[in-house]
């Protein structure tokens, strides 16, 4: 039996001015899950004396790529603040907040926009156990004239631990000799060094692996490459460099890729132009190929295509494997870069679905007011519920379905039938988790996974 709790939320304005409503909702969640301990706060049973605790929010970008603001984009500051403040009421020895946003994210601007900069400074003055906020990225970048300009080695290599899952990686089954793994807007030749037959490497922040307890605080959003982003997908932000993170395989499904359905010579030309742009060694060369991609993009759109060449559809058979590999590392990873046979740390998940994100997530989400927090000790169970809450059929979302798989270093040792929902402290049927009656806007490539719509896309 795996208990997963949800707490309803009142006015969306209640978070402002101290976040008292969030704290009360967290307390109800913790009580439902049996987490409190007298004298040690609502997380008292989870945090041993002197434990090192990492809080992992969703801080993907400093600004919404659409006109909808930061509210549906990142974990709300009131949720992060309430969790950290409760952790400091526990017996924790050290608490740190950290994430690796996109390379183009202006981290200082993100902290200013959320108010986390001033909050962090105040917390460090108030309680020396709070070690502040970490940016886990080794490489950042600026976009100049449409071209990515990287700044490398922003953090020392010693701050990270290299893991190689080898043939036990979930990516091994789809690894080929074409060097086909890609992550949008990055040099594919760099990924050749990290992922190939029998070699699947990840570079994980040392703060993650040296923690005793992790509190994962995702923002619930639809996601054009994974269907949704929640507890499982959020852990992609523990990795320091993008070239360790395959997101799709180049080419259409008809030729062994998973970037888009079928085959398309026009899209293949666009993929080639993207690769040349990101491999060019001069700004002039990158700018020339960037202009070529703009022309080809217009031609692709003019042909009636709506999916593009980023693996933004339900046939993406790569990204879920990367994400689940990272979840296995979080659970079983050791400081020497190996994986143990038993979990090495406890991981708990508290989801911000007060204002979730819908539409073209994760970077241009529209607000979806669900007015809920929900939590559990299993990322697989949390994401199964998250999928239902968004109106998806969970078994049609690969990152959710495959998290229950039987592989080495498993993520879930139970089936979805073992999830027991509790709403505001009362056991109930799983209908409490959805699907929502509120209409949801879905990424176009994932409409075939929606309850009630899937049959129309068969």
State the shape: globular
- Rg from Cα: 21 Å
The largest sheet is: 11 strands, mixed
**How far do the termini sit from each other?**
34 Å
Describe the overall structure.
There is one protein chain. It contains twelve helices and 18 strands. With 458 residues, it is α/β, with parallel strands linked by helices. The chain starts with a strand and ends in a 31-residue tail after the last strand. A hairpin with a 3-residue loop joins strand 15 (346-360) and strand 16 (364-376). The model has no long low-confidence stretch (mean pLDDT 92).
How does the SSE layout of this entry go?
Layout: E1 2-8, H1 20-33, E2 52-57, H2 77-87, E3 94-99, H3 107-114, H4 116-126, E4 130-135, E5 140-144, E6 147-151, E7 160-164, E8 181-182, H5 188-192, E9 195-196, E10 199-205, H6 206-209, E11 213-217, E12 219-223, E13 227-229, H7 231-234, E14 248-249, H8 265-279, H9 283-302, H10 319-332, E15 346-360, E16 364-376, H11 379-389, H12 398-401, E17 419-423, E18 426-427
Parallel strand pairs: 1-17, 2-3, 2-11, 3-4, 11-15, 12-15
Antiparallel strand pairs: 1-16, 5-6, 7-10, 8-14, 9-10, 12-13, 15-16, 17-18
Helix pairs in contact: 1-2, 8-9
Task: Give descriptors for this structure.
458 residues, alpha/beta, three-stranded antiparallel β-sheet, 18 strands, 22% strand
């Amino acid at each position: 039996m795996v208990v997963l709790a949800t707490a309803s939320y009142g006015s969306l304005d209640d978070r402002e001015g101290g976040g008292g409503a969030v704290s009360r909702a967290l307390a109800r969640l913790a009580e439902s899950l049996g987490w409190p301990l007298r004298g040690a706060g609502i997380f008292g049973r989870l945090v041993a004396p002197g434990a090192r605790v990492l809080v992992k929010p969703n801080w993907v970008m400093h600004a919404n790529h659409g006109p909808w603001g930061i509210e549906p984009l990142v974990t709300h500051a009131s949720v992060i603040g309430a969790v950290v403040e409760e952790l400091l009421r526990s017996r924790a020895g050290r608490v740190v907040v950290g994430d690796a946003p996109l390379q183009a994210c202006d981290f200082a601007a993100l902290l200013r926009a959320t108010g986390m900069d001033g909050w962090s400074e105040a917390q460090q003055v108030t309680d020396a156990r709070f070690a502040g906020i970490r940016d886990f990225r080794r490489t950042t970048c600026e976009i100049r004239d449409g071209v990515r300009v990287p700044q490398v080695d922003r953090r020392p290599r010693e701050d990270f631990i290299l893991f190689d899952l080898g043939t036990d990686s979930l990516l091994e089954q789809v690894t080929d000799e074409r060097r086909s793994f890609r992550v949008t807007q990055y040099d594919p030749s760099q990924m050749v060094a990290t992922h190939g037959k029998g070699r699947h490497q990840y570079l994980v922040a040392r703060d993650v692996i040296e923690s005793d307890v992790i509190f994962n605080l995702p923002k619930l959003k639809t996601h054009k490459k994974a269907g949704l982003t929640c507890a499982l997908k959020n852990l992609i932000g523990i990795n320091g460099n993008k070239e360790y993170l395959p997101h799709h395989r180049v080419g259409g499904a008809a030729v062994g890729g998973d970037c888009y359905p079928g085959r398309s010579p026009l899209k293949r030309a666009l993929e080639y132009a993207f690769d040349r742009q990101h491999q060019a060694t001069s700004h002039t060369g990158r700018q020339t190929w960037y202009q070529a991609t703009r022309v080809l993009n217009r031609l692709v759109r003019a042909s009636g295509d709506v999916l593009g060449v980023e693996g933004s559809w339900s046939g993406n058979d790569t990204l879920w494997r990367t994400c689940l590999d990272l979840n296995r590392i979080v659970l079983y990873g050791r400081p020497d870069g190996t994986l143990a046979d038993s979990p090495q740390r406890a991981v708990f998940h508290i989801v911000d679905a007060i204002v979730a994100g819908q539409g073209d997530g994760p970077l241009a989400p529209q607000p979806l007011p669900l007015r809920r927090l929900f939590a559990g000790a299993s990322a697989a169970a949390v994401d199964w519920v998250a999928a239902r809450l968004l109106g998806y059929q969970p078994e049609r979302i690969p990152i959710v379905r495959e998290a229950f798989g039987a592989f080495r270093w498993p993520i879930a040792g139970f089936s979805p039938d073992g999830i027991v929902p509790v709403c505001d402290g009362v056991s109930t049927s799983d209908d409490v988790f959805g699907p929502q009656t509120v209409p949801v806007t879905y990424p176009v490539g994932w409409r075939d996974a929606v309850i009630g719509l899937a049959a129309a896309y068969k």
